[in-house]
Amino acid sequence: MEKISISSTARTPAVEFDPVARTFVLSGESYPEDPFKFFADPLATVNAFLEEKHEGPIHFEFRLTYFNSSSAKVLMDLFCSLEEAASRGNDVSVDWVYAEDDDNMLELGEEFSEELSAAKFSLKAIAE
Amino acid sequence: MSSELLAQELETLAWCERLMEEVEGKFPRDDFERLHKSYKRLLKDFNRIIRISDRNELRLQNLSEELTEEKAKLEGLANQLSSYLPRQVFESIFAGKQTLEIKTKRRLLTVFFSDIQGFTQISEALQPEKLTHYLNQYFSEMSRIALKHGGTIDKFIGDAMMVFFGDPETKGDREDALAAVAMAVEMQQRLASLNLQWQGEGLQYPLITRMGLNTGYCNVGNFGSADRMAYTIIGGEVNLTARIESACEAGGVLLSYETYSLVQDHMLAIEREPLTLKGIGRPVRTFAVTKFYGSATHVNEELPVKLRLPGNPEGVEIHPSELSMPDRIALVANLRSIADQLEGVRDDKHQTD
What we know:
The complex is a heterodimer of chains A (128) and B (353).
Chain A: E1 4-6, E2 14-18, E3 23-30, H1 35-51, E4 58-67, H2 69-87, E5 92-99, H3 103-113, E6 120-126
Parallel strand pairs in A: 3-4, 4-5, 5-6
Antiparallel strand pairs in A: 1-2, 2-3
Chain B: H1 7-22, H2 29-82, H3 87-94, E1 104-116, H4 119-125, H5 128-148, E2 152-157, E3 160-165, H6 173-201, E4 209-224, E5 229-234, H7 236-247, E6 253-256, H8 257-263, E7 267-271, E8 286-292, E9 305-309, E10 312-318, H9 325-343
Helix pairs in contact in B: 1-2, 5-6, 6-9
């Protein structure tokens, strides 16, 4: 399975996925002109990875500062896949990292955490 | 997210759950469960998307309000700053027509210079506060007239004022020159009535100005450095205008031949002694404005007019063609002031735009 490394732009987030280290980081702002086109390839790889059983821990990190509704739908699907992977016995942890004064991103993190029960979820505030 | 908004969907979900129980064994339960699970997830996603969307909208709304406030603040600041720049230049920059680069271009401009005769003596005779008061009123009135005629106020240098016509907006060479001369004449007229008003307030010496105009090609644009620049004009024609102005009679308007030739159909003028200027090979022809008509109908100046006063049936005969412009303007201002006093009209009636 290939590594993924996509740099951020003004409208799209940075995507870093390392299947060997079993880490995934999504950071920046996300309001691509065509969200499904932007996320299609990386998510196909990530979903295929999550379908498998892994021996070591899997760590996903979200460091988003803004995302639109379409990106939210993509995130919800990804969270669903993470929960399913965890239900299948994988050790899945998710960090939702937000700026400490960004109440909006905190609330969104809380919103997404509702999706997870088998996967471990943490909200992490950072100073800007 | 209120459950009322999704009442129908929730009812469908409940109905699906009831149906699963009712049709136990008659319909594959796995299919039902799959359908139920998908619908439940869809409903949850939909619910969440609406919440996210509402939150984003609220955030955008707040940002929009902040931006509106910032915009108002910036506009207020820009308006304050606009007083430090020629209005046309300021508007041109804000409309995106002007770039803030050290760059100049050549333009045919009509340049205007004025200064107050004997300003040093006046400033010595007046308290600084009084001087500031009169000078500010003078410049305010002159600026108002300059803007009214479309002039670009380049700068104030002590008691002197520099205005040009033809950039950043131009109405054509002739129209620009005409507007410049109309402005100068109106300035002298206004100053004559201001002097009467100030005399009443106790100003001992009237402010008498000389005005010079010239038309020619100048370099216009941003001069200076990237840190500090000024939109101004330079060139031999600008210097020539300053020299013409210094040769002007007190209270008069003196034109170069180049300006005169563009506006001569709208005025009467007397040719003055040519000026011999350092650096200019041939003498410079100049013309003193005696009467400016603008677009008004030409009046026969040859016929004398009579001013009849009570107790003096013979009256005083005035020959318009023999009057210099300063005398004519002073006489008009005096007669208007007398008429206003007789009618009980305040002076600011004449401050029209």
